[in-house]
Recover the amino acids of this structure.
């Protein structure tokens, strides 16, 4: 196995939201990795997160994970050490909703999920058109998704953001009015120690995983995290 696609969704009371797109996202990621000669396997078993088991991996992808990703602190530590020492990490859609109580995980990933407006069409503004994960896009991109609002760290490199003016909001919901810049990040990358981290908030709908532009965005982000294409 070259790449671990991790899918754990867990809360002690069993009430956490679980996306119905997980199987679809895993299948797409396996296809995309295979096209680049990479073998990807999926699991929701936190026992895989030990220093020994992570050592040979080329990348770890949190694919629509949510809530408690681990069952023990040592497992979280193994992941953080893996990335800091040069490993590749990719977060997909609800991955920012994982490990909500861990500040160390938020700093590694670059943000934590706070809330999202209803699923709807909106306009994406591409900030970096030279990055491999966004170089195929025009300056703006029309997309339909859940526009995740995250508590981001100040050191992320924003790849693209949502134009707040393109979002519809409920009349009494003033939360979007707080974005004085008129936008907030939806995809970013950052360095964590010697490792690379890529995150995209897109990917709520099953149909997204057959969209050519999104598939390119996703696999190029994976490859960037592995230092393959940049």
């Amino acid at each position: 196995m070259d790449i671990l696609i991790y899918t754990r969704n867990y809360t002690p009371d069993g009430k956490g939201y679980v996306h119905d797109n997980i199987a679809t996202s895993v299948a797409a990621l396996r296809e995309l990795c295979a096209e680049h000669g990479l073998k990807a396997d999926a699991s929701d078993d936190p026992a895989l997160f030990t220093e020994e088991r992570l050592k040979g991996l080329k990348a770890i992808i949190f694919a629509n994970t949510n809530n408690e990703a681990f069952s023990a602190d040592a497992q979280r530590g193994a992941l953080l050490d893996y990335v800091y020492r040069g490993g590749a990490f990719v977060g997909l859609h609800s991955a920012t909703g994982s490990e909500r109580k861990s500040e160390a995980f938020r700093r590694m990933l670059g943000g934590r999920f706070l809330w999202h407006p209803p699923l709807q069409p909106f306009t994406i503004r591409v900030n970096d058109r030279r990055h491999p994960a966004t170089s195929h896009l025009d300056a703006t991109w029309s997309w339909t998704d859940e526009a995740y609002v995250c508590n981001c760290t100040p050191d992320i490199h924003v790849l693209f953001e949502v134009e707040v003016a393109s979002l519809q909001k409920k009349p009494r919901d003033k939360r979007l009015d707080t974005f004085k810049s008129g936008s907030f990040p939806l995809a970013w990358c950052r360095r964590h120690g010697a490792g690379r981290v890529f995150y995209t908030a897109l990917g709520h709908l099953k149909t997204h995983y057959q969209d050519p532009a999104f598939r390119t965005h996703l696999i190029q982000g994976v490859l960037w995290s592995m230092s393959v294409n940049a």
